[in-house]
Amino acid sequence: MKNYDAIVVGVSSGGLNAMKIMFSLLPADFSIPIIIVQHIGARSENIWIQLFNDKSKLEIKEADEKEKIEKGKIYIAPPNYHLLIEQDKTFSLTVDERVNYSRPSIDVLFETAAEAYQDKLIGVVLTGSNNDGSKGIKRIKECGGLTIVQQPDTAESSYMPESAIATMQPDYILPLEKIIKLLIEIDIKNKNYDEINGQR
């Protein structure tokens, strides 16, 4: 039985609605850290994070420079910064050139996370209107991680899931609610794995 240490999520057009559903359905004891890139305007104040916190059973926060990734938290990339994951499982923020016209870029998060977590990573591509995330989720698969893509005809914007599927064959192609159910099932298996191995 494989244990997973982190989940990375890429989302663009239609993402606020998708995240609202995800955050409302995840249980309070969900332990795998979730790291999200949502394409947002460079001047966004991310007020919506506080609104989501009011509805979520888990803590949702912007990722900070050099912050250590902890279980049971949801991290959002801040506006106008690329979010990277270092080998020591901390965040780095950069203002390097846009990737796929985006900063933050899903590919940047996914590719650095794949290098840091290898086969202990879950990558999820949700609704969106460009191809950001396609290269990144392919890299996650190459490193042995689990890949999940939203079923395109259930996405508010199908282009990003379709692009990811065209790049590689995901392990799962599911509607959003079933993706969340799968993540919860994986988290339960994680906890059982930890108990068996005396880590909790």
Considering the chains and any ligands shown, give keywords for the structure.
6 helices; 36% helix; globular; 200 residues; 20% strand; Rossmann fold; alpha/beta; seven-stranded parallel beta sheet; 9 strands
- What is the tally of beta strands? 9
Main sheet specs:
7 strands, parallel
Strand content: 15-25%
Radius of gyration, CA atoms, in whole angstroms: 15 Å
Helix proportion:
25-40%
By secondary-structure content and strand pairing, the structural class works out as: alpha/beta
Q: What is the total domain count? A: 1
Number of helices: 6
Question: What is the CATH class name?
Answer: Alpha Beta
Look at the structure and give the mean pLDDT: 90
Poorly predicted tracts of residues:
none
Q: Biggest sheet, strands in spatial order? A: 3-4-2-1-7-8-9
The CATH topology turns out to be: Rossmann fold
Outline type? globular
SSE string, helices as H and strands as E: EHEHEEEEHEHEHEH
Going by CATH, what is the homologous superfamily? Methylesterase CheB, C-terminal domain
CATH architectural label = 3-Layer(aba) Sandwich
Distance separating the two termini: 17 Å
